[in-house]
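Protocol step 4 of 5: obtain the predicted structure for the target chain.
Materials: sequence only (see below). No template structures provided, no constraints applied. The aim of this step is simply to have a reference model before the mutagenesis design in step 5. Sequence pasted as it appears in the construct record:
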Amino acid sequence: MSGFAGIYKKNIGDMDKHTLGDMSASVAHRGPKSAQTGVYNNNLALAFRHPAATVRQSGEQSLILQRWDCVGVLDGAIYNYSELHDELIQKGRLFDTDEEIEVLLALYREEGVSFFERLRGMFAIVIYDLKNDKIIAGRDRFGIKPFYYAVIKNELSSGKVQAGNKIIFASEMKAFIHCFDKPFSINKEQLQHYMTFQYVPEPKTITDSLKILDAGSYFEYSITNSSETRVNTEKTTDGISIKKYSELKFTPDRSVTYDQKVKRLRKAIESSVELHMRDCVEIGAFLSSGVDSAVTTALSSRISPGIKAFTIAFHEHEYSELNDASGIAKNLDVEHIKLDFTFEDFISAYDKVIYHLDAPVADPSAIAIYILCREASKYVGAVLSGEGSDELFGGYRVYNDSVICEKIYNLPSVLRRFLAFAGRIMPGFVKGKNLLLRGTTPLEQRYVGNAFIFDEKQKADILTGYDPNVHFTHITKPVFEQVKNETYLTKMQYCDISTWVKGDILVKGDRLSMANALEIRTPYLDTEVWEAAKILCNEDKLSHKTTKYIFRDAFRDILGEEHFMRPKLGFPVPVRKWLKNEMYEWARNIIMLSNADEFIIKSTALKLLDDHRSGKSDNYRPLWTILVFLTWYEKYVSRFEETKKTIANY
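Step 4 output (structure tokens):
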């Protein structure tokens, strides 16, 4: 784990250095033990923070490394570091350190920007090519590690306009609070998408000022040759030319037998877990009731006997995974650390979670993840987690209906229209009504990923400045175009990997673990695991009346029959229940005291809350989406200056 911030422009001045110091302080939690800053060629000011969490790092380390006319920083971990290191030595490269970034600089000098394709790991990398005066920035293929940037054109300097662009970049959005005199602006189009997805889909952010470098992408940019473009790049409105070096495409293959797929998948996951444990000072594992975390815990305990497993529990029995997780831990013979989660814990952590998430992400499980990370950080420096397994192997319950819905939609049009009519007139309590409605509606018009909060009509009711010309399909249409000839299941998985994983799952994991100086490692989001998963067919994943069957089958022997078919709850939080009782007044106050009337219609929000409390309708997800936005708005917009001054308190 680590964090960086940088300013790239002609003639770095004292004000830039001061701004960089503030930006570095904003991401201090990502590396609270060590910090380094430097100015290079008088055009790049760079800050880096690192906690020295790997066994290779001892004593005083150079966090920002300069070698071979290059300067580089790495946030993340390169799991094939040793193999690349040995390969480069055989080619005659000599190394001064044991640092991963030195290997990356050498690899860049050997292969140019194509070196990104060689990397197996999670990373955001910045390289400054001193000889050519250009920066190269790249992000891992899944989007595990973040990279925010802003391009400022013709900035004011000492009362005069200074020609040329300035690029500011950082590991977290909050670092940019020191770069602007005004609060973050709200892009109303992206706010509308947030209300549907419960996050703003990358590479956009909720503010016009910032963007996120997309997963599996890199860019090169030179302030001395700002008109430079590259072949096969997408040039953004900022003049930055971005290139995709990795496309995650499913390629189901029936020529490979089921048994061969099982063996390949197991080998890839076992290898990945081993690599993800390499070089860690001390590592644990998150353990829920699901098979994905059970597998990572089981495999890691074989490599490191006595490993600690962490589970969060709730007083409300129906929301607790404790009993199931305890049974798995006992079966695996690992040390099980259980955390009791109360309503008071939830409320006390809420503000910090919204702050650390950077942008509004309306996932109630974020609070539980933050508290669990806080507890785990008392014992270990890193944890293994099961992110990505559901998307790769077909694990979500919503995937279950994909096959039958596809069959319904492929019926003759006359019959399909009849079934659609029947679905509309059926009473809501009749079983099968929703299935008919889903099956007779094109997938592309109804599926946006794992969460669908507000539809267009509902957004018009809650948003002050609703624009009917902005539709959620503007986000999903280009995604579905990439897999237009694939099955419903493949389309749904691809949509989730392209939106949900990057915008929700990995944001929670990175920001909330880093907030506690803890590193989350995700062995399922690995290059070799992906290669084994992308060839799976529908019947490999949805079979025997369960999801991700082949994954379960591959590890049946270590899971045991009792846990082999068990579904998971996935950090459930009792927000639905609390909003009717102890959380009601708290939520009402957030809505009433909000200064975001320009965006949210309070009367509609209050009606949603009251209807939920009375049981008239289940509105907890829409309500949570509203509450998170209003709290984020208070911190980063209406109380912008106050947040800037008190940033150290977080």
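Step 4 remarks: Residues 161 and 269 are 54 Å apart (CA to CA). The longest helix spans residues 488-514.
Proceed to step 5.
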